[in-house]
Amino acid sequence: MQRSINDFFRSRRGIIAVGAIIGILGPTLQKLGNPPNMGICVACFERDITGALGLHRAATVQYLRPEIFGFVLGSLIAALLFREFKARGGSAPIIRFILGFFGMIGSLVFLGCPWRAWFRLAGGDINGLIGLIGLTTGILIGIVFLKKGYSLGRSNKTHAAAGYVFPLIMAALLLLAIFRPTFGPENSGPIFSSESGPGSKHAPLLISLAFGLLIGFLAQRTRFCTVGAVRDIVLLKDFHLGSGILSLGISAFLMNLIYGQFHPGFQGMPIAHSNVIWNLLGMILAGLAYCLAGGCPGRQLFLSGEGDTDAGIFVLGMITGAAFAHNFGLAGSPDSVVDGVLKIGGISSNGMIMVGIGLLVCVLIGLTMREKVQ
């Protein structure tokens, strides 16, 4: 029985089915209360968690997102059931932290991770296409380094307890989200929760958690990854993962049509800006960082659930990047309507400088972390 299940998840039908399920669940979460043209965004949700813990104080983006905890715990459950939980680490953890940091910076300049780029496009936001072009460009740059021998080295087997640390952190945060304890006088400290803006928009907690657990379980079984899809197509001419990503996009588009959530446009789209240059450059940075780290933000969460401590370090780097992005004014600002006039959003000069620094750092990592090609 277990073998037949494994065979299904490894098949083309399996990855297409999982992509379709994720594409259905994203718009459904949006329908149930999650932010528009988002449904699921790993970078945005980690940013909201960062704010809920008080690591940044942008009041509109603070909420303990149960989907993220579900991704990790669902992956953990799948790994344990199928005997794939393997505690491991030691593959250039500090470099992975830096890549996670700049991957988050790039995503928040664009205002979305690779998953949200697809969900934005499926909702009619043409800027999602710009983001996907930037993402692909960044991945292609990363592939050049891979061909030149780039490697972060092998991870090594470690104590099982180490592999459980990150899932236990996610479980602890989930308990905080469920029981909502108060800290500090007059609830003046974390856990924070937005009263307006994207952080105030969320589906019911138990539904979000259930969807997250399901996605985490299925993605762990299929190795679902947006960045890996492009990498495999270019390096191996393998369209296996790519078929799952395409399935996600198509099913999300159809669900948005069914829910009446498809609204095509370019300017003034929900939680998005239409500055083409910085949408493009932000996602080039994100794509390059994610490629060098070996997977998209979602994939890093799934890996951390199956015992990969290096992936956990990458996620902590993303959380740190989210704190810096909002504390130092680096994140993108969405288009807005002021006195009846559309004001185009974008990023600050600080954000522009940080994108440049991020690209430089990632290129240097790609050039220096190389093994001799035999």
Automatic annotation (TrEMBL):
It holds the Pfam family Sulf_transp. The chain crosses the membrane at residues 12-29, 63-82, 94-117, 129-146, 158-179, 199-219, 239-259, 271-292, 313-331, 351-369. It comes from the Bacteria. The keyword Protein transport does not apply. Keywords: Membrane, Transmembrane, Transmembrane helix. InterPro entries: Seleno_YedE, Sulf_transp_TsuA/YedE. The keyword Membrane applies. NCBIfam families: seleno_YedE. This is Putative selenium metabolism protein, YedE family. It comes from Flexilinea flocculi. The lineage of its organism: Bacteria, Bacillati, Chloroflexota, Anaerolineae, Anaerolineales.
